[in-house]
Amino acid sequence: MAIYKMGVVEAKFADLIWELEPVGSGELVQRAAKELGWKKPTTYTVLRKLCEKGIFHNEKSIVSSVMTREQYYGKQCKQFVTETFEGSLPKFLAAFTAEEKLTEKELDALKKFVQEHEE
């Protein structure tokens, strides 16, 4: 599985791109300056890194995503469960609920999810 890790700063920038896409790189520079306090070279450096990681694409000065926010975080979750809990979702859920039990609403949502995804 490919690894698509982003740092905290990259994730904030990625959220900005996902919010605006497709977005011209000039507008992205302006928004990054306004919302993140970045200068133009910083914006282009981080954008280049995210494009190299296969998360975004910059063609003809238009930036768009290769994967949606949900796809990215879904891959991150799967990678975490694989690396930390030997790929076992039950082990993950046991650890997740060890300190705090699930509410009835959460349990109902999980039951519904499992029913919808049964093979």
Topology readout:
Blueprint lengths: L7 H13 L2 E2 H12 L3 H13 L3 E4 L2 E4 L3 H17 L3 H8 L7 H13 L3
Antiparallel strand pairs: 1-3, 2-3
Helix pairs in contact: 1-2
Structural features, described:
The protein is mainly alpha-helical and 119 residues long. It folds into two domains: 62 residues, Orthogonal Bundle (Arc Repressor Mutant, subunit A); 32 residues, no CATH class. The chain is built from six helices and three strands.
Structure summary:
Helix content is 64%, strand content 8%.
Q: CATH class of the largest domain, anyone? A: Mainly Alpha
CATH topology annotation of the largest domain: Arc Repressor Mutant, subunit A
Domains (count): 2
CATH 2nd-level architecture of the largest domain: Orthogonal Bundle
How many distinct beta strands? Answer: 3
Distance between the termini: 23 Å
Helix content: 55-70%
Sheet with the most strands, sense and barrel status:
3 strands, antiparallel
- Biggest β-sheet: strands ordered side by side in the sheet: 1-3-2
The helix-and-strand class reads: mainly alpha
Name the overall outline: elongated
- How many separate helices? 6
**Helix/strand order, N-terminal first:** HEHHEEHHH
The CATH superfamily of the largest domain is identified as Winged helix-like DNA-binding domain superfamily/Winged helix DNA-binding domain
Radius of gyration: 18 Å
Mean pLDDT: 92
Proportion of residues in extended strands: 5-15%
Uncertain regions spanning at least 5 consecutive residues = none
